[in-house]
């Protein structure tokens, strides 16, 4: 079944306008749960109840209010809609920057862009230009009644549009209670940690990573469906704080994580070495 676009509009840069459609590039695989009463499993529902009156309120009667600290300011749906600006159906690319200049922490949700009727050629030209230049378009558009800062870049052989966080949405490290080391690491610790990093080095392969939490919950659900009592594993000890001992054990292959990584990395390393040998031959 073909995915349906969630937004149709126009992508602009300079005086160029390309009719486009927007698709979500991700799909939630989270488990959906119902809230029920523990004693008998009866389903429940949530209602909008007025705090002062105790009456149930209809959605059409609701508006949004901003708490100023000394009171609240109510904004109507029409007033909030006006904040979208005069061009709510346009993705305006303002400038292009080097992709490597953008810290990944600024990226948020990814989308795919497709061309609508009359925009296929210009779409392909822009995609090729971005692939060759390594640049990322920075602009903004309105999605679900909120203006979004966005990055336009090649994604999986097509144009990708990724919403971004504004700079004031990032919490500076100096505002957090981060642990400050009481002493500098020893040269031996750094050397051993570097060796462990090298031992666990591998190529990024998204297919190797699974949602083990979802799998564990589904196993419990299936066990209960069969009328069985799920077997809950015991929590593992966190271990001690002897860093050198932990590094030595990992380098010796005693650590479970190191063992698994070594196994995967070893097979890939052998494949790489065979490939290089064939190339030389």
Automatic annotation (TrEMBL):
Basic residues bias: start-end ranges: 269-281
The organism's place on the tree of life at top rank: Bacteria
Keywords annotated in UniProt: DNA damage, DNA recombination, DNA repair, DNA-binding
Biased composition (Low complexity): 244-253
Coiled-coil ranges (or none): none
Region (Disordered): 222-281
Stretches assigned to the Ku domain: 54-181
Database matches in SMART domains: Ku78
Its biological purpose: With LigD forms a non-homologous end joining (NHEJ) DNA repair enzyme, which repairs dsDNA breaks with reduced fidelity. Binds linear dsDNA with 5'- and 3'- overhangs but not closed circular dsDNA nor ssDNA. Recruits and stimulates the ligase activity of LigD.
Family recorded in the similarity comment: Belongs to the prokaryotic Ku family.
Subunit relationships: Homodimer. Interacts with LigD.
Protein's recorded name: Non-homologous end joining protein Ku
Organism: Patulibacter brassicae
């Amino acid at each position: 079944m073909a995915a349906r676009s969630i937004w149709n509009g126009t992508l602009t840069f300079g005086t160029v306008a390309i009719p486009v459609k927007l698709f979500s590039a991700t799909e939630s695989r989270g488990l959906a749960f119902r809230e029920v009463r523990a004693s008998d499993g009866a389903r429940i529902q949530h209602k909008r109840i007025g705090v002062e009156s105790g009456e149930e309120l209809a959605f059409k009667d609701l508006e949004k209010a901003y708490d100023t600290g000394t009171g609240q300011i109510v904004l109507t749906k029409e007033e909030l809609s006006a904040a979208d600006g005069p061009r709510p159906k346009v993705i305006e690319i303002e400038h292009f920057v080097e992709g490597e200049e953008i810290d990944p922490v600024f990226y948020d949700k990814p989308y795919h862009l497709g061309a609508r009727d009359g925009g296929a050629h210009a779409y392909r030209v822009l995609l090729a230009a971005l692939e060759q230049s390594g640049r990322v378009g920075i602009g903004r558009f309105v999605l679900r009644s909120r203006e979004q800062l966005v990055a336009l870049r090649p994604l999986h052989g097509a144009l990708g549009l990724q919403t971004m966080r504004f700079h004031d949405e990032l919490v500076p490290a100096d505002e957090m209670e981060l642990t400050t080391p009481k002493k500098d690491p020893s040269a031996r610790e750094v050397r051993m940690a570097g060796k462990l990093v090298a031992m666990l080095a591998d190529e990024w392969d998204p297919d190797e990573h699974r949602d083990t939490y979802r799998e564990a919950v589904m196993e419990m659900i299936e066990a209960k469906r069969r009328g069985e009592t799920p077997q809950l594993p015991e929590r593992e000890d966190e271990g001690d704080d002897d860093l050198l001992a932990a590094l030595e054990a990992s380098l010796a292959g005693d650590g479970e994580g190191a063992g698994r990584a070594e196994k995967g990395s070893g097979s890939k390393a052998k494949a790489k070495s065979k490939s290089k040998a064939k190339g030389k031959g």
